[in-house]
Specification:
Elements: H1 2-33, H2 38-45, H3 49-56, H4 64-73, H5 78-82, E1 101-103, E2 109-113, E3 123-130, E4 135-138, E5 146-153, E6 155-160, E7 163-168, E8 172-176, E9 181-186, E10 191-198
Antiparallel strand pairs: 1-2, 2-3, 3-10, 4-9, 5-8, 5-10, 6-7, 6-9
């Protein structure tokens, strides 16, 4: 009986270790999806930067309260944060409320993160909706990165390195985004588009 008890404890400890490792990876992917530093996530969640770092490196088992604070700061359900990668179905559905949203500095451009969180380090995609005159200013991504903006409704304008190009519904703009760039919603109508960012594309010359 004692041997069986020790085996059960080892099984539970192994399971907790696996869950903790998956949790750390999920927190890190979500943080990077929002382009948050450890310090920024710490400030927004109220969880110490050192603790978040330990969670991401799988060096600690956080309390449920800590996981809840992080999920709130990252705008996802606690169920999603705790979900085991091995248990996820091949077909996955995300609700509107479980889709993280970014806003431009002027509050007039909304980016819903529709891409798979596991690819965020090399491939990201967003659903973009913008009010007329809305401006999205972005810093340079890593060298070789490429952004694709496919317009569904309205008109958008992209400015990068002094060059400006405009696209209407049904048109796509592709441009290197490894330098500061600006996306504007131009014209009198609401603009909607899909944006795909390839962070490890071949370097464009």
């Amino acid at each position: 009986m004692a041997v069986e008890g020790r085996e059960r404890v080892r099984e539970l400890e192994a399971g907790a270790q696996v869950l903790s490792g998956q949790l750390g990876k999920t927190i890190q992917r979500l943080r990077k999806a929002y382009n948050l530093s450890l310090s920024e996530l710490a400030e927004q969640s109220g969880v110490a930067k050192s603790i978040i770092s330990q969670i991401e490196r799988n060096e600690t088992n956080p309390t449920l309260a800590t996981i809840w604070r992080l999920s709130q700061a990252l705008d996802v359900s606690i169920e999603r944060v705790l979900a085991s990668a091995d248990d996820e179905p091949f077909i996955e559905k995300s609700s509107r409320g479980d889709t993280p949203v970014l806003l431009s500095d002027d509050g007039r451009v909304r980016l819903a993160i529709t891409g798979w969180i596991k690819t965020v380090e090399w491939l990201q995609w967003y659903d973009v909706s913008a009010e007329p005159g809305g401006i999205l200013e972005s810093e340079a991504h890593q060298r070789g990165s490429v952004e694709c903006l496919s317009v569904r409704t309205g008109s958008f304008e992209v400015e990068i390195g002094g060059a400006v190009q405009r696209a209407r519904a049904g048109e796509t703009l592709r441009y290197r985004c490894d330098r500061p760039h600006i996306v504007r919603c131009v014209g009198p109508d609401l603009g909607e588009a899909s944006m795909v960012v390839i962070l490890k594309a071949a370097v464009m010359e």
